[in-house]
Amino acid sequence: MRFDGREPLQLRPVHIETNYLKNPEGSVLITVGDTKVICSASIEDRVPPFMRGEGKGWITAEYSMLPRATQQRTIRESSKGKVTGRTMEIQRLIGRALRAAVQLEAIGERTVWIDCDVIQADGGTRTASITGAFVAMALALENLYKTKKLKSFPITDFLAATSVGILESGEAVVDLNYPEDSAAHVDMNVVMTGSGEFVELQGTGEESTFSYSQLQELLSAAQEGLAKLFEIQKEALGGELSSLIESGKEE
Amino acid sequence: MRFDGREPLQLRPVHIETNYLKNPEGSVLITVGDTKVICSASIEDRVPPFMRGEGKGWITAEYSMLPRATQQRTIRESSKGKVTGRTMEIQRLIGRALRAAVQLEAIGERTVWIDCDVIQADGGTRTASITGAFVAMALALENLYKTKKLKSFPITDFLAATSVGILESGEAVVDLNYPEDSAAHVDMNVVMTGSGEFVELQGTGEESTFSYSQLQELLSAAQEGLAKLFEIQKEALGGELSSLIESGKEE
Amino acid sequence: MRFDGREPLQLRPVHIETNYLKNPEGSVLITVGDTKVICSASIEDRVPPFMRGEGKGWITAEYSMLPRATQQRTIRESSKGKVTGRTMEIQRLIGRALRAAVQLEAIGERTVWIDCDVIQADGGTRTASITGAFVAMALALENLYKTKKLKSFPITDFLAATSVGILESGEAVVDLNYPEDSAAHVDMNVVMTGSGEFVELQGTGEESTFSYSQLQELLSAAQEGLAKLFEIQKEALGGELSSLIESGKEE
Amino acid sequence: MRFDGREPLQLRPVHIETNYLKNPEGSVLITVGDTKVICSASIEDRVPPFMRGEGKGWITAEYSMLPRATQQRTIRESSKGKVTGRTMEIQRLIGRALRAAVQLEAIGERTVWIDCDVIQADGGTRTASITGAFVAMALALENLYKTKKLKSFPITDFLAATSVGILESGEAVVDLNYPEDSAAHVDMNVVMTGSGEFVELQGTGEESTFSYSQLQELLSAAQEGLAKLFEIQKEALGGELSSLIESGKEE
Amino acid sequence: MRFDGREPLQLRPVHIETNYLKNPEGSVLITVGDTKVICSASIEDRVPPFMRGEGKGWITAEYSMLPRATQQRTIRESSKGKVTGRTMEIQRLIGRALRAAVQLEAIGERTVWIDCDVIQADGGTRTASITGAFVAMALALENLYKTKKLKSFPITDFLAATSVGILESGEAVVDLNYPEDSAAHVDMNVVMTGSGEFVELQGTGEESTFSYSQLQELLSAAQEGLAKLFEIQKEALGGELSSLIESGKEE
Amino acid sequence: MRFDGREPLQLRPVHIETNYLKNPEGSVLITVGDTKVICSASIEDRVPPFMRGEGKGWITAEYSMLPRATQQRTIRESSKGKVTGRTMEIQRLIGRALRAAVQLEAIGERTVWIDCDVIQADGGTRTASITGAFVAMALALENLYKTKKLKSFPITDFLAATSVGILESGEAVVDLNYPEDSAAHVDMNVVMTGSGEFVELQGTGEESTFSYSQLQELLSAAQEGLAKLFEIQKEALGGELSSLIESGKEE
Q1: F17 reaches D (C-beta below 8 A)
Q2: How many beta-carbon pairs below 8 A join chains C and E?
Q3: Which chains touch F (3 or more CB pairs under 8 A)?
Q4: How would you classify the pairing of strands C58-65 and C111-120?
Q5: Distance of CA B11 to CAs B128, B223, D37, F193, F249, Å?
Q6: In terms of DSSP bridges, do strands E111-120 and E58-65 run parallel, antiparallel, or are they unpaired?
Q7: Exposed, middle or buried: residue C55 (CB in 10 Å: 0-12, 13-18, 19+)?
Q8: pLDDT tens across F53-91, in order?
Q9: Taking the mean position of all CA atoms in its chain, how far away is CA C192?
Q10: Residue E75, burial from CB neighbour count under 10 angstroms (0-12, 13-18, 19+)
Q11: Quick one: which H or E segment has residue A77?
Q12: Interatomic CA distance for residues A30 and A129, integer angstroms
């Protein structure tokens, strides 16, 4: 039994509230247990300089935490004047992950800006950000598609992320909260498509190591959790948009 | 009649949700029309270097906007590596205003960190921040007081803020939303105590000017709006904490 | 009686030396008691990117203090690598104030850069900066106008600033020096036009408050001091340029 | 057959020159094909503030590339005034990986600073950095151990890293050079201990995905390459130091 | 004959106004032709961390130009967020030069902060800064000495600086103004003591070279100009303080 | 006799390995005793903005030290977020020196980027950088010339640098290593052309001074050392390229 009474392969309660903000082209508030992230997707009608003239789009992400998302107040990165390595790592991951589920040629020379702002942090903020940002991005691109600015719908598959880890007890569990994350021997983030393909796999044994068989156990735990997350995404997006995504997958 | 059908001296709907976050010692989500700000108050058990050994506390504020709080995406200050002049001006104002309603000696050598994060912006974010931050601070200090860490309750009066302005029609109005704010000839922010004393008055005729009689009209509009805001603060804080504040005022 | 023997409504000795530097299009050394500020106005033949193509000009200001303008040496902002909030607030105020006395369309797509460098500080550096910068700007624009680069003279009225405050004695005084400023309960900066219209009003009761009747007293003190400052500006600018400004006011 | 004629599971020629620099406590020049990295290990007799008093040591890494390590000259991060996200990600990875092979308690309150400076880059600079840095660190710690500053030898196992990927042909290969890396569908970095345990696994399908069976193929390719790298490390370190490490493993 | 009618070995008019500012322990306004620099010397009762406990003092300098000291407005270094290489070079030179004329042990653990702020620039700002800063420093140290805070007077000799150069005509001249400096083939700054010893020699043939005999000619021109500058320094410092310096020289 | 047994006018062993790196257009590893610097020259087909349209080229240099080039680890400038004054001074010197040996018109609108990265430091890193960078630049320009991108060979003479100083014994020596440099009373860097003309002369008596006769002694020591360095450069460059440079000198 886990700290909060969950089964090893049980996610915390997940809720995705769509169109949480009025200004962005797409936005959600994703809640995973006590972790809460506002994800927004903004469409800009140009690409960064290094991509101009290639006829394809770009997806980039920024990630931040409110100072009191955490138990101890964290100093703002704007006050420090620089973004930490952890933040950079996370925002590079979010952008890279989302790009794997989108045909960049189908967006045209546009940039999708993803903003993930963590309102409250209790472990798994980067995976909640990816899962929520996918929904915000789908809403923003649906809008572009419906207003005839795109010839085809650019999303090719569902995409979500979760964390898995090996607790001190040696048990493999899914969706670690902060106390579990701090105590875990191994911590792995898995980003997958709805079809079950890996997009990103980041496993680390901070001051520890893990074996091949533990890896297999972790991956199978992740798969179970992700299956549930895809259902929640579909529910949040509704039947019509979910079908659009499914049809992209078939191509 | 105003853009959104309000009377000149009518505030937008205001709501203050207390204890919005689980980590900060005090927090609220304040909603003023479409403007939404998360305000949190964190207690740190030391003061900045320049105040050490004086036996009194300090209150300081930080203010930020999510990139898509605005209609056009705003670049993050953490990405730019510096805080804009506007942000600095606002966070200095919030801190200064709150300090006027608190006996700093009664806090002891502690710092109250105020964080105002604008989730959605539709005009009046700095005044909403002050009004909400006062409530978050009161909740945090109540906690300190109830756990016997303070000898007396340090808040001496209610404190709230609103904006007033003169529209192109020449009419003085209260609580301008973003379209009104952009079009107004004169824009004034007024911070007041529950007893009707001024704490801060900032009036500016950007590329315009205003007369003494217009000033009088603006101040009376502000007073009316603020009376309503104090009621909403009292309701959010509840009877017991409101009475504590009222008793501080009498001293 | 005040620290330095002045009457409540008496300014310190004010002197404006025009054309203090040889390079700027306009420059002054303004002396207000022991406060000394070099103000220069530079004309640049383009506007910032966000204003291009609008056919109007822009006025922007920068403010700085020499490290030993103050009693204790202040660290240079260039060494710290960033501009403080106080400096940003002041330079935004100077720019905004000056723009209220100029028809930006009449300048064409040009920027007037105002530089206010405080050589010696004894209170009231921001208001001395505004009063001096107005004269430097007038000299620079006169030059443009006389060389036929402008169709009409763009300045529409005189503009000056002073501080007022309420001393511990409860008395309202004008033009506070540094010891008065440090001890005052309320501090207010007033920017006005020669016609007596308000341009900017910034009153603050740092860790204190003020009543409506005190506000009225402060404003009337400001008005008296400003009347004297307009005379000094006229003398510094000379009859011909003063008339040009007066004629702009009439339009 | 690969671009450079190698077999799929064949490493490029690897050479580790120990004690390359005279000043650091440990240093190597590691050459992997045309990739060349100077790795140095410096011992500092204190730990960062957040670890003081815990009685254990810390290992941290910095990574940089000479501007012309690359085909096109890269702007120096010192000139830009900030470290890129890529660099931060790599230096966090190097530090985390090395910490997994060391008992931090056995170092005492000391910091091992690892510096990896890429002289020439042809793919795999982060994995070459880890493989080389392990050797530099072992040399530095051997020194501490031999001068009786440590009670036990703190390294618990060999540690090396390599990259694996899936080429456009669908073939899984080990130790990608730059042209292969740019064209690969999937790119994975694997850090392992001499005992065959995973320390870090980072697989990414940039704008692509990979299946479970491809993952298995990649991991088995990595294992083969790493076996060869451990041999090269042992040769570089010599019998005595290698035995010390082996004995740590047994504990 | 030179642009401005001077003889080759003739300085521009030099004037040193002592105690120009009221706050610093020592200050001057030095005027060299159209070049004007405010130099101030501030005494701080501690030394930088790297010198603590050595029982000796430190002298450090900062240099800056007002934006319109120059013909074209120069962007403020505080706005750019960094100090240029030219500024760094100059402030390192000023500090190093002054330290050569002072017995640092005799100051005790104090720092003399030199601030050189160029109000108007017409060539030779760094040499004017050194010549003026020496006087400001002497005034500040005299003060310390007279108030019995120092056992002996720490200045060991006069110190001044001038520039010399070779014009396009091939003639060696002293004290170049800006047009001469821009056109000169060789530019050399010479810092000397009152006894005729070199403290610093920086000669450069920007995109040009110079011979040994030209070097000799330049040095003799410098010597002549410096002799005049020492006289002007003595006059500014007065007989008593000049004697104090002379007596230090004899030791 | 010197610390390391050298005669006063004897250089340390100097070796220049050409084409040390595969990517830059020209590169060397220069070894001067224990000082080792990688110098590379990169050709960019444009000039900085301030030179566009003038039809001539530019040469600019950057200088850096690996953290453990020094006895104590030096913090990376990229981690500090800024370049130190010492680095700026050195890179400005290198660029200025090299420009004196090149006809910038003959390069066309191209920039030669010089990168000097100190791998190991034992005194004289800036002079070794200049001596090595000249060779790297010659190799890069030879390449341009041979591929017919230049009409004439732009280098007009050999160029090298060395340090000279006066030891505590009063003796003038050439090519100081780090212990000598730290103890020397006077330190001078001399940059000369193959024809014996001065390009740059920087002499400083840190907390000391030097006489005219000492200067003469230093310059003659420098000349002797430089004669040897020009021979080593010629050998490194080979007969053909050396002749090209010699012929440029004649013009």
Answers
A1: no
A2: 90
A3: D, E
A4: parallel
A5: 12, 12, 65, 79, 83
A6: parallel
A7: exposed
A8: 999 999 999 999 999 999 999 999 988 888 999 999 999
A9: 10
A10: exposed
A11: helix A77-80
A12: 8
Q: CATH number of the domain at A32, please.
A: 3.30.230.70
**Rounded Cα–Cα distance for residues A140 and A26 (Å):** 4
CB count within 10 Å of CB B240 equals 9
Cα–Cα distance between D29 and D33 in angstroms, integer? Answer: 13
pLDDT in tens, F204-242: 987 789 999 999 999 999 999 999 999 999 999 999 999
Closest residue, chain B, to C200 (C-alpha) = B204
F46 within domain boundaries: yes
pLDDT at residue F251 tops 70? no
Q: What is the spatial distance between Cα E190 and Cα E124, in angstroms, rounded to a whole number?
A: 11
Residue B95 is encoded by which pair of tokens? 């801190």
**DSSP letter, residue D75:** P
CB contact (8 A) between residue D23 and residue F120:
yes
Tell me which residue in E198, E206, E210 faces F198 most closely, judged by beta carbons: E210
Q: Which chains are within 8 Å of E by 3+ CB pairs?
A: C, F
Q: Do F27 and F41 contact (CB within 8 A), yes or no? A: yes
CB-based contact C120 E64, cutoff 8 Å: no
Q: Do C12 and C6 meet the contact criterion of CB atoms below 8 Å apart?
A: yes
For the whole model, what pTM was predicted?
0.92
Q: Report the DSSP beta bridge partners of residue B64.
A: B117
Q: The tokens of B27 are what?
A: 């927090």
Look at chain C and report how many structural domains it folds into.
1
- Mark D115-146 as b/e (b = at least 16 C-beta within 10 Å): bbbbbbbbbbbbbbbbbbbbbbbbbbbbebbe
To the nearest 10°, report the CA torsion of B162, B168, B171, B177: -30
Could you list the beta-strand ranges (E) of chain E. 14-18, 26-32, 35-44, 58-65, 111-120, 159-166, 172-174, 186-193, 198-204
Average pLDDT, chain B: 95
Using the structure block, give the residue that is written with the tokens 């407005």.
Answer: E73
- Nearest in space to A93 (alpha carbons), one of D203, D163, D216, D167: D203
Which of E89, E99, E203 has the CB atom closest to F92's CB atom?
E89
Average pLDDT over residues B54-83: 94
Owning domain of residue D104: 14-248
Give the whole-angstrom CA distance, residue F244 versus residue F251: 11
Measured distance CA(A104)–CA(A111) in Å, rounded: 10
Would residue F237 be called left, alpha or beta, if left means φ above 0 and alpha means ψ between -120 and 50 degrees?
alpha
Q: Is F193 annotated as a binding residue?
A: no
Three-state SS for A247?
helix
Residue type at position E233: Q
Instruction: Kindly state whether C44 is in contact with chain E, defined as any CB-CB distance less than 8 angstroms.
Output: yes
Instruction: Give the total residue count for chain B.
Output: 251
Residue D3, in any domain of the structure: no
Q: What is the pLDDT of residue F29?
A: 98
CA distance E161 to E61: 15
Q: Band of the pLDDT at F7, cuts 50, 70, 90?
A: very high
Prediction ipTM score? 0.94
Q: Is residue C1 part of a domain?
A: no
Q: Per the domain annotation, does A1 fall within a domain?
A: no
- Closest-CA residue of E relative to C81 is E81
**Torsions phi, psi for E87 (to 5 deg):** -60, -45
Residue C91 forms contact with B (CB below 8 Å):
yes
E236/A81 Cα distance (integer angstroms): 46
Q: Give percent of chain B with pLDDT exceeding 90.
A: 90
**Rounded distance, CA C95 to CA C60, Å?**
5
pLDDT of residue B250: 62
E126 is in an annotated binding site: yes
